[in-house]
Amino acid sequence: MWVEKYRPAKLSEMVNQADAVSRLSALLKKPQDMPHLLFTGPPGSGKTTMASAVTAEILGQYWRDFSLELNASDERGIDTIRQRIKVFASHTDRRVEVPFRVVLLDEADNMTHDAQTALRRIMEEFSAGTRFILTANYASSIIEPIQSRCAIFRFSRFSKEDVVNHLGSVCRKEKTRYTEGALALVYELSGGDLRQALNQLQAAASIGPVDEQNVKRIFVSAKRGSVKEMVQHAVRGDFQKAREMLAELLFVYGVSETDLLKYINEDASEAKGVDQAELAKVMAEYDYRLIQGAHPEIQLTALLAELGVFGRKAERA
């Protein structure tokens, strides 16, 4: 996969995120003094890649033996903290080449509150021989005691120029024909998510040259228009039709719940007569529910019902 083939292995190879690279490079000059790290920012902005690069530069050839990587979305309970992480962190080794062991917790904002509390105690107890690198889409979901024990690095979406230049470089290395317009379209449809952009670029290249027509075929760009149509049905009170379209977008086109929520917010904000202040509150509530792990289909269906209420209020006004 291109997303793995062209994943940066060193900080110097990172796409943009210059501020984070500069600060981390300074810390790595004396790795034994490095604190725990927390990388926060939107998906596809390089957090996990940066964490892996830092781990590799600290541990060198021993990185496989002295690092533990877990995805907190899959293993987010207190048992994982107590059993796997504590056992790993408590292990000691006398190799002088390794300043400490590294635990990389990806998507740590998906961990339960109890698990985070247990993690905080382990971070305190084993800080002499273990460093933790946490990544999170939302820093607000990480408890304050953990945040206060970490150096926080905030990542931003990649710019259009950075993504287009990187995609062009990949195409040239793969000897794939492309147009600048197609790469710009990949950026727009991926929302600045470099991981998604690379995956979709490879998919488009698999069916021919990377031109706008093939990019649209891969992204099924009509799905964006389908979201707008779904919102219109919901606001007009045609809940059943809106619900059918939601199921199609989720299970046929495979649109993620986070993307759907973003698109619904954009389209509902343009609906005439809708109370925008109340809409903002409702959108924030459903965003929070999804972050907390609520069932995506149930929550998005309920959101469509809420939009119908907004539509009825607009008609009476």
Order of helices and strands: HHEHHEHEHEHEHHHHHHHHH
Q: What's the Cα radius of gyration?
A: 22 Å
- Which structural class best describes the helix and strand composition? alpha/beta
CATH superfamily of the largest domain: P-loop containing nucleotide triphosphate hydrolases
Poorly predicted runs of 5 or more residues: none
Question: Mean pLDDT, nearest integer?
Answer: 86
CATH architecture of the largest domain: 3-Layer(aba) Sandwich
In short:
This protein is an alpha/beta fold. The protein has 16 helices and 5 strands.
Structure description:
- The chain has 317 residues and is an alpha/beta fold.
- It folds into three domains: 2-154, 3-Layer(aba) Sandwich (Rossmann fold); 160-219, Helicase, Ruva Protein, domain 3 (Orthogonal Bundle), CATH 1.10.8; 222-311, Zinc Finger, Delta Prime, domain 3, CATH 1.20.272.10.
- It has helices at residues 2-5, 18-27, 47-59, 63-66, 78-90, 113-125, 144-147, 160-173, 180-190, 194-205, 212-219, 222-236, 239-251, 257-268, 276-291, 296-316, and strands spanning 36-40, 67-71, 101-106, 130-136, 150-154.
- It has a five-stranded parallel sheet with strand order 2-3-4-1-5.
- The chain is globular.
Which features characterize this protein?
317 residues; Zinc Finger, Delta Prime, domain 3; Rossmann fold; 16 helices; Helicase, Ruva Protein, domain 3; 5 strands; 5-stranded parallel beta sheet; alpha/beta
Write the layout of secondary structure elements.
Elements lengths: L1 H4 L12 H10 L8 E5 L6 H13 L3 H4 E5 L6 H13 L10 E6 L6 H13 L4 E7 L7 H4 L2 E5 L5 H14 L6 H11 L3 H12 L6 H8 L2 H15 L2 H13 L5 H12 L7 H16 L4 H21 L1
Parallel strand pairs: 1-4, 1-5, 2-3, 3-4
Helix pairs in contact: 5-6, 8-9, 9-10, 9-11, 10-11, 12-13, 12-14, 12-16, 13-16, 14-15, 14-16, 15-16
